[in-house]
Task: structure prediction
Amino acid sequence: MTMKILIVEDDAEAAAYLAKGLREAGHVADHAGDGEKGLEMALSAPYDVMIVDRMLPRRDGLSLVSAVRGEGRETPILVLSALGQVDDRVVGLRAGGDDYLSKPYAFTELLARVEALGRRRGSSPAQTVYRVGDLEMDRLSHRVARGATEIDLQPREFRLLEYLMRNAGQVVTRTMLLEHVWDYHFDPQTNVIDVHMSRLRSKIDKGFDKPLLHTVRGAGYMIRDGLR
Amino acid sequence: MTGFGKLLRTTAFRLAVVYLVIFVLFAGAVLGYVAWNTRRLLESQLSETIETEINSLAEQYRIGGMRRLAATIERRSRQARGFLYLLADTRSEVLAGNATELVQVLQSPPGWREVPFRRADEQESFITLAKVRIFVLPNGMRLLVGHDLEERQRLRQVIRQAMGLSILLVFVLGGFGALMVSRRVLRPVEDIAEAGRRIMSGDLKERLPVRGVGDEFDRLAESLNQMLARIDELMSGMRAVSDNIAHDLRTPLTRLRAGAEEALRNARSPDHLRQALERTIEESDALIKVFNALLMIARAEAGSTPGAMTDVDLAKIVRDVGELYDPVAEEARLRLVVEAQTPVVVRGNRELLGQALSNLVDNAVKYGVPVEGADAPAEVRLTLGCEGGTALLVVADHGVGVPPAERERVLDRFVRLEKSRAQPGFGLGLSLVAAIARLHGGNFRIEDNAPGVRAVLTLPRASAVPVAAQ
Result:
């Protein structure tokens, strides 16, 4: 799915890297170098996702986000910040941002988040049943089965799988999992997520011919019917 | 700026002036009241004296009739006692008395009067006031008896003089007092201001003088000293952070750079280059982690996250983190026991508290495996309890432990014990926990779990947090 993305970032070099990466991932990327230009572009053309740096010349990022929201635009916005304060994230989201990433970030992390934001916008509100290959999850009855085999999951494993299946076919990073499944934004020292994932994998993939849960090197995880 | 001009602008002096004015007005009112009362008393006394004189004249009249009265008046007129007499017949013919000039007054209706009166003394004559009473006798004759008011006049003069003098005295004494007070009040303030200037331009370690009398100025100086201590602490913290950044980021940065250079020089194939680049990214990620941790410690120590403080249930965080680490512990062949059922609410930042606990559990899982042959269960115990107004969070393991001498030191930044060198990490985990504890008004210490480590994090419970600590 190709998305039209607006990057509002004053560092031209960083913006160029970002745009290049997004284009390589199959998206269309526009760049605005300051807050006023960003607002003008955001209001003149429809974008699927906006990436907004917090510190911008002429109009700062948070004010840009508020202005876009004030115009009634629901475009998902990812706020970037180099400030790294503990409550930056809260401030960014309160201003109307949908997600938050602090600099420096891994491009894979940013891409995964941008795609998740764009997807969230396109998809219909939460489905009751998710299907990936022969894996099926009924969110109402909390039943998970692979083909004819029932799979017994712990509550947290269920939520982990639910998040993966909602983003089926897309990369989900470890921090995204920690944020959405555990609702924490701190940095666990060890790769705790990996251990949880290997547990989940042993439950849904072990003993089946075709693995569904894949590790995407340097990025995170993806649930998908068949390898990319 | 002259000293006096400076004095005029001080609060103490202005207060003294206001006080002085009020004092003077009050003193004036008291004096005025006294004067008015004295005058009234004097007047009624005079009236009484005149009344007595009249009575005695009436007695003479009863005894000897008109003739005796006239004779008595004539006699008494000559004994200059300040009394005025005048007896006149129906045709205003003066029969007796010493106040012949008041013959006009005699014709006015009977009763009390205050009239001007020319009094002749030995040397001069002057006009004074007199209080008189006029009678009409049964035979139609008129009698005037009075007394001059010189005494009252003199009293008024005395009072006026006294008043002027005492007001002058009040002004002088009050002004002197005001100067004294303002100087006394000014001096400690000046001392503090002077010391403050000295400290600002010089050594932050210096402190303001505390005189030890425990007054407002001592308390002010103590507060300012506490502020200085805090500033000094923060400055040292910042200095330590920059020192650490210099020391501990330079090494990995050098390694990072050397690795990239080496790859550029010696890479034989694209594969080689790719591997080198991947290593570079890994190393820079690690560097970013260290950098973030250092920043977080510095920020937590500076106490700069007031906006992110809410009431959070510590029990929920303990259960969450326990659950998050459960599979990790299991992989390390450790049993993770979580005891946190009842909610314990503290005022804090959920993310930071989660980070702190996660660091502790991470350490416990890394170093908490009992040494070979030790008689200890392979478990990590996470306990949340309460002691009065304090929440007590304990992460206990039975691993290698920390030698008593090192228990304070491991809380410093970048300190890694020999035994831990083999494990990944930067030696920032526990310093971050300590900083987060301080930020929340709590405390963090490492105790012996015989064998192993008992990491104790204490935090004030939400209901017990005094408002001043916020």
Summary: The mean pLDDT of chain A is 84. The interface with chain B takes residues 84-87, 90-91, 104, 106, 156, 182, 184-190, 192, 195-196, 198-199, 218 of chain A (CB under 8 Å). The domain at 129-223 of chain A is CATH 1.10.10.10 (Arc Repressor Mutant, subunit A).
